[in-house]
Amino acid sequence: MHALALTPAPLPQAGEGSKQAVSEQ
Q: Helices (DSSP H) in 1-25: which residue ranges?
């Protein structure tokens, strides 16, 4: 899940959050 490195997800559990963030962006 390299999405975490791609997104500056401030949340510690951005595993799924990052996915949604990328989709929204």
A: 3-6, 14-24
The residue whose two tokens read 């559990």 is 13
Rounded CA-CA distance 13/10 in Å is 9
Tell me the whole-structure pTM to 2 decimals.
0.16
pLDDT, average across residues 1-25? 58
Round to whole Å and give the CA distance between 21 and 19: 5
CA-to-CA distance for 1 and 4, rounded, in angstroms?
7
CA distance linking residue 14 with residue 12, whole number of Å: 6
